[in-house]
Amino acid sequence: MKQYDVIVVGGGHAGVEAALAAGRMGCATALVTFRQDDLGVMSCNPAFGGLGKGHLVREIDALDGAMGQAADFAAIQYRLLNRSKGPAVQGPRVQADRARYRTAISDIVAQASRVDVIEAEVTALSLTGQTVTGVQLNGDTTLNATSVVLTTGTFLGGKVFIGEQTFPAGRMGNSASTILAQQLRGLGLPMGRLKTGTPPRLRGSSIDWAALETQPGDSDPAYMSFLTSRTIAPQIACAITHTNPRTHDIVRENLSRSAMYGGQIEGVGPRYCPSIEDKITRFADKTSHQIFLEPEGLDSDTVYPNGISTSLPAEVQAEYVKSIQGLEQVEILQPGYAIEYDYIDPRALDLSLQLSALEGLFMAGQINGTTGYEEAGAQGLVAGLNAACRAQGRAPLQFGRADSYIGVMIDDLTARGVSEPYRMFTSRAEYRLSLRADNADQRLTALGVQWGCIGPERQAAFEKKMNTLESARAELRARSFTPGQLRSAGYKISEDGVRRSALELIGLSGFGFEAIDVLAPELGEIPQDTREQISKEVVYSAYLQRQESQIAALRSDEARAIQDDIVYSDINGLSRELADKLTRARPKTMAQAARIDGMTPAALVLILARLKDRD
Ligand code: FAD
Predict the structure, then answer these.
(1) pTM score, two decimals?
(2) Coil/strand/helix, residue 414
(3) What residues does the tRNA uridine 5-carboxymethylaminomethyl modification enzyme C-terminal subdomain domain cover (predicted)?
(4) Residue burial 454-463, b: 16+ Cβ < 10 Å; e: rest
(5) What is the DSSP letter of 200?
(6) Fewer CB in 10 Å around end: N or C, the chain?
């Protein structure tokens, strides 16, 4: 019987980051998972990043996690979402080749020191009183450890639904974790059921691509990892098609046969990833919905139709899919399905993701009521670091709302819990102007070095980058100009007698680095990526003060009364979903509104502005 410092149960996105983090911290770590092949499997969409989620990938990467580098190795299309908006709300996203992602993750895990992968089912936790001491494998072997991290994803009590058909499974083709689920239910932990769904997979060679609009990737990719400097895999285009009134009729006529709508599933699903059944019911006035046809890999003939997840019977899926332009002759390789699974109410966890009721047991990923690879990976990192700290007798490591999206997520989960699968959005972060994807390394890597979870390659790359940045900032700060000098060089500036540094001028309209190149050509040595970074910082510094005052206003206005006749659906910018929740809940004060599940700081600012308008 081997004694480990940390045992991680589950080799999904949370489990891999947890095991790697514990290993980097110097702990002897076992990663126990059903199958060696589990590592790097994407259960649903072949993509990483996006709005809010891209921030999480960069933060995982900043702390030397695996997701960013593996996503860059697998990336077959890069797109920076919200490119036309400010950097704070831009979301780097990649479409990823499934096989390449698995290869990359398996290689990283194989090369990690101190991480053993064990192929087995964990059937029980070993307990001594209220403390976890290890796990039992396949009902007969015991592994001991000081800390155990549970990352069972959609497998805990997992049940798949395709129309009227249902069977136990962790995802299509994989067994569910039913024995462990029984033990956890028996321990009296606060648990519930959630659900999610996935679309049918299509044979690429049966799609009429010529009939469809294509969507190429970006020509100047925003990489997922701070260590990536070039595009690795060949890049491809996706295609776009749309549902139509005929598609909607077929879905509507068969709604009673959908597992999600026929009442077979008790769990709550993610409103942010609606199934085609949800879209047609909730947005009944729309006659068309967009579908992205995303090839699943360079050597794969499978295509993921993003936007039509479903739990209708297979024959109905075939009928509605064939009603869509370009898919008239399509072959379905695997029908879409829904899955329902157990989760633990994350309010039972502390900020280190340790269960308050059972010492030594940490939880991360879908088991905590979240959805998405990025949310899972980020929690895995937190749980792995803290499981390691416990094993080493060190104090827990905490992430705050002001330093990272990871901190926002952990705080949201542990303080508010979830009423539907939780996913990250930039609007959840009150400090989003300072928590940008581009500065995740500046916010977290130095902390990671202090904690001991950063490898030598990243530490060296980070120090080099910071030295270049700091010396560029210092040079720009040291060079300054009077209004007279600027005006005689042809720039418009008020005659206020104030000397302005080159750094300040970069942030002023009509200046930028182009002006500095002319005014101070001796500073021309600053590399392009450093220039881009400094430009973002300078532009944002002006807004940071506004961010601070908005947050202060929110805090001071918590007791403010909300009149009963306020019409939430009339507030511009407030999502339909939050407007519905507020209309139903009718909070009496701003503090009550803030506690509504899914409420965001950005939405509170909008409500507050409406109340002030009425004063
Ligand atoms: P998983 O990736 O599920 O990994 C769990 C791992 O634990 C597996 O490797 C499993 O083998 C292992 N395991 C479980 N129990 C045991 C045990 N007892 N012993 C040993 N090993 C065990 N995300 C989105 O963002 N949007 C979506 O629309 C979406 N739709 C989805 C649809 C479906 C049908 C599924 C299955 C998932 C979907 N997801 C979606 C969720 C996404 O797959 C997960 O959020 C993510 O994979 C969670 O990562 P995880 O590490 O928590 O769990």
Answers:
(1) 0.92
(2) helix
(3) 538-609
(4) beeebeeebe
(5) P
(6) C
Q: Are the CB atoms for 69 and 108 separated by under 8 Å? A: yes
| Atom 47 (ligand 1) nearest CA | 373
Q: How many residues does the chain have?
A: 615
pLDDT band with cut points at 50, 70 and 90 for residue 401? confident
DSSP string for residues in 228-239: --S--SPP--EE
Nearest protein Cα to ligand 1, atom 14:
152
Spacing, Cα 485 to ligand 1 middle (Å): 61
Closest of 9, 11, 215, 223 to residue 106, by C-alpha: 11
> 481-540 pLDDT, tens per residue?
999 999 998 988 888 989 999 999 998 888 888 889 889 888 878 898 999 999 988 888
Q: Residues annotated in the binding site, as ranges? A: 10-15, 122, 177, 269-283, 366
Report the pLDDT value the prediction gives residue 430, as an integer from 0 to 100.
83
Work out which ligand 1 atom sits closest to the CA atom of 375. Answer: 45
For 363, the enclosing helix (H) or strand (E) is strand 361-363
Q: Is the CB of 180 under 6 A from ligand 1?
A: yes
Kindly provide the ipTM of the predicted complex, given to two decimals.
Answer: 0.98
Cβ atoms of 76 and 216 closer than 8 Å: no
Backbone angles phi, psi at 480, to 5 degrees: -135, 165
Query: Is 34 touching ligand 1 by the criterion CB < 6 Å?
Result: yes
Atom of ligand 1 nearest to the CA of 123: 18
Using CA atoms, how far apart are residues 469 and 449, in angstroms rounded to an integer? 19
560-596 residue pLDDT tens? 889 888 999 999 999 888 899 899 889 888 888 887 8
For residue 142, what are its two tokens?
A: 């015991």
Is 141 in contact with 319 (CB distance < 8 Å)?
no
Our answer on whether the CB atom of 381 is closer than 6 Å to any ligand 1 atom is: no
116 alpha carbon – ligand 1 mean position (Å)? 21
